[in-house]
């Protein structure tokens, strides 16, 4: 094997859901692949792998990002939150998670983690004032089953609960 064909890895220190992880990855490894394949955090889904469906949405420093388009190396030293990190340590669901259950805002469930992560950010960003605004700011998350009315209802419910 020549130097040009050797696999080069870089050490990363990632803080995910309040836990510190150390791993060695190739520089081109995406955050999505690091989460799923290296750290067994499989709640974040790989949908299109092209940044078009939103199934891989996570938060980096509180901002929603598409993990399939983000290199793991780009988020070193930043706070990453995945769907596994939303519930409280005692298992208490986040208001958005609870609202998704109450509003039956999923069918197959594949898009649900990304939908919930986007909904949390949508509410935090102040974009849940009306159903139209929720639809606009959740537009980057696709649901093949068409559960959109229930998703909007869940976001609306959670936004009201968070505000009170």
UniProtKB/TrEMBL annotation:
The keyword Iron applies. Gene3D superfamilies: 3.10.20.30, [2Fe-2S]-binding domain. InterPro entries: 2Fe-2S-bd, 2Fe-2S-bd_dom_sf, 2Fe-2S_ferredoxin-like_sf, 2Fe-2S_ferredoxin-type, 2Fe2S_fd_BS, Aldehyde_Oxdr_Iron-Sulfur, Beta-grasp_dom_sf. CDD domains: fer2. PROSITE patterns: 2FE2S_FER_1, 2FE2S_FER_2. The keyword Nuclease does not apply. Keywords: Iron, Metal-binding, Oxidoreductase. Residues 10-86 form the 2Fe-2S ferredoxin-type domain. It comes from the Bacteria. This is (2Fe-2S)-binding protein. It comes from Mesorhizobium caraganae. The lineage of its organism: Bacteria, Pseudomonadati, Pseudomonadota, Alphaproteobacteria, Hyphomicrobiales.
């Amino acid at each position: 094997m020549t130097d040009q064909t050797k696999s080069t890895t870089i050490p990363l220190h990632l803080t995910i859901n309040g836990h510190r992880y150390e791993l060695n990855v190739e520089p081109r490894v995406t955050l999505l692949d690091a989460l799923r394949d290296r750290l067994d955090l499989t709640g974040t889904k790989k949908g299109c792998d092209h940044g078009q469906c939103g199934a891989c949405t996570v938060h980096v420093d509180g901002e929603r990002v598409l993990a399939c388009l983000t290199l793991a190396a780009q988020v070193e030293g930043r706070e990453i939150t995945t769907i596994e990190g939303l519930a409280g340590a005692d298992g208490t669901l986040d208001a958005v998670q609870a609202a998704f259950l109450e509003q039956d805002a999923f069918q197959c469930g594949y898009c649900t983690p990304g939908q919930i992560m986007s909904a949390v950010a949508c509410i935090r960003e102040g974009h849940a004032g009306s159903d139209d605004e929720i639809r606009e700011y959740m537009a980057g998350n696709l649901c093949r089953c068409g559960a959109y009315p229930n998703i909007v209802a869940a976001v609306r419910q959670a936004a009201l609960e968070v505000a009170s």
